[in-house]
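Lab meeting notes turned into a lecture example. A postdoc, R.K., suggested we walk through two folding results consecutively so the class can see how the record format repeats. The first protein's sequence and structure tokens come next.
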Amino acid sequence: MMLLLLAALNLAQAGELAGVKVPDQVTVGGQALALNGMGLREKIVIDVYVGSLYLPQKTSQASKAVDADVPKRIQLNFIYETVTVEQQKEAFSEAMAKLPNAAAVADRMTRLATSMELVHSGDEVVFDYVPGKGTQVKVKGKDKGTIEGADFMRALWTIYLGPNPPSESLKKGMLGL
């Protein structure tokens, strides 16, 4: 009976979408963050990854999630069989073309794109933002460095939560809508 209760408690403390389970809480920069929501990145008819957004306080407003200079995380759990580095670079390039401040962060977006690796189903890419330090990038558990600037963080978060997200279902899910 106790094992069933513990199993139920564990399920209640995790978000799940498309077979991907993530914790309801993570710690970034020493601060506990809550799972704000999870969304599915679809390209045509292919499910590519599940994106999760973690914030100190939940919000359904994209502008609050993007603009707040607080610790936060975007986590991408890949579910598609294989996504190449070139496909990832192309996705960042397409997203950059839609950003209003693209020129100001272009060099840092290039650094981000070149830090990507071939990913397979089950792999994870994490963007952790810590005010005053920058956005730490992890690919498959490996630290790929920290990219400085709140302006870069806002540009990156705008890619996922702004007016032209990779997919509407991704944005809506991450915002808990």
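The second example is placed directly after the first for contrast:
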Amino acid sequence: MQKFVQESWLILVLGIVFAVLLAGAQTTLLPRIQVNQAKALNEAIGEVVPGAVKTETVDLKPTYDRNVFKCFDAQGRFVGWALDMLGNGFADKIRIVAGLAPDCAQLTGLKVIENVETPGLGNKIAEAEWAGQYQGLDAGRPITVQKHPPVAGQNEVRAVTGAMTGR
């Protein structure tokens, strides 16, 4: 027992050193992380709302606690909406940007901007092929998740894994 106590000081010291290093890295890199997150959000908005080059943030709190963006083209014409969304994944939170037509009747695009899902399985949601199946879907009707390829006009998408089927 005495040997254990004598040798445990090293573990305690290493724990403190690594905690200080991690806190320092977080403090030092936080501004850069925030800039990169804002850049990823702006690029995603440009992808999910065709023609969008400028946005205005619309505050819908407390009804909706994430950002909603009113999107405009280079001439200042209203071209659609972008919604910053956060949901639960298997491993952690998944952050998605969805685009809506100006009348909110159709989805114009979907882009996953943050996820830590299983490589080769759950993280397939970040691929353009999976996200592309949402483009043109009716935003006023429920979207059905299926194992099989989606049927045109049925507001269906194909699941990445079997986890969401049958809902």
